[in-house]
Automatic annotation (TrEMBL):
This is ABC-2 type transporter transmembrane domain-containing protein. It is found in: Membrane. It is a multi-pass membrane protein. Keywords: Membrane, Transmembrane, Transmembrane helix, Transport. GO terms for molecular function: ABC-type transporter activity. It holds the Pfam family ABC2_membrane.
Amino acid sequence: MNPSDHFLRTINKDFDNDIEEGLGGKKTTTAQAIDTLATAYKSSVHMEKVTRQIADIRSTGGEVVKMEGQQPSFLTQSFVLTKRSFVNMYRDLGYYWLRFGIYVALCLCCGSIFYDIGHSYGSIQSRGSMIMFVASFLTFMAIGGFPSFVEDMKIFGRERLNGHYGVSSFVIANTVSSTPYLLLISVVPGALAYYLVGLQRSFDHFAYFALVLFTTTMLVEGLMMIVASAVPDFLMGIITGAGIQGVMMLNGGFFRLPHDLPKPVWRYPMYYVAFHKYANQGFYKNEFLGLTFPNNQAGGAATITGGEILRDYWQVEMGYSKWVDLAILFGMVILYRVLFLAIMKTTEKVKPMVKGLRFRSTQPSVHVAQNGSGSP
């Protein structure tokens, strides 16, 4: 008899009807095997050793250990999850490090293409194109972390079923742990592109530039969190997220100026829903206000101010400052996280109800016929 059959026969009585014959044609049942093992253990030195250890433990005394586990507080859950998520992001090259390298390469390309752009009339369009690239494509690259986030979602699903922590702790931990990495990939590549191109040199202008880039990147990650809650498949999720961002890009006010957008759907409401509107206008106000360019248009003034360019050339809304655009972007970051939290909370409540309805609908109906009521 092989070892696996021996141990199965020893612990499982279901094999009593189909066991192999031992030596001499005798059969040993599971009960007999267990009794033999128990008798041998009682007369062995192992039982004496365990008995002495139990006596020593009882003699030392001590507090009674409560079997009920104490649920950690919300802050403890968030702290532990943040630490674990931060370490996972650090170790996973595909989460942020690969994206950081690609950002650096892209910003070097962007900086070399638009290098020292100057202050000519033609630089107006070049500045707008460079800003559009940063506001659209660099933020678009944030979908690269989608596969890693889906893996985190799977782990969260298993641990949530075991009651270890809630959805709120998971959302807060993911947001806090990703913040340092998003700052890194916003400041370093952003500085390369910003100063190579020759945008406004003051640190205040660069700080605003980096803040908008950081906020839009975090916003896109929140958008992909919502996509992951609805489309957990890697490929389908990336395609869905890319499609949503593509629609927002088209309505952001660069490819088609705001006044030229068709009013049904595209101007109202898509133009105001797209975060690219606020990112582009914040970048434009940050760059053009305070600058003066030579005017090549015949019959006009010799120079044209940045405010006139914003109002007439880019059709930017000048009724509020660039900080309002940044505040709106921060509000959208919070909104997307709250939407993800609401979706996950709703899913937790609805999914068991749907499964229960499906189970009841698949159960066969049983009809009991009374005596004499059936056909002969």
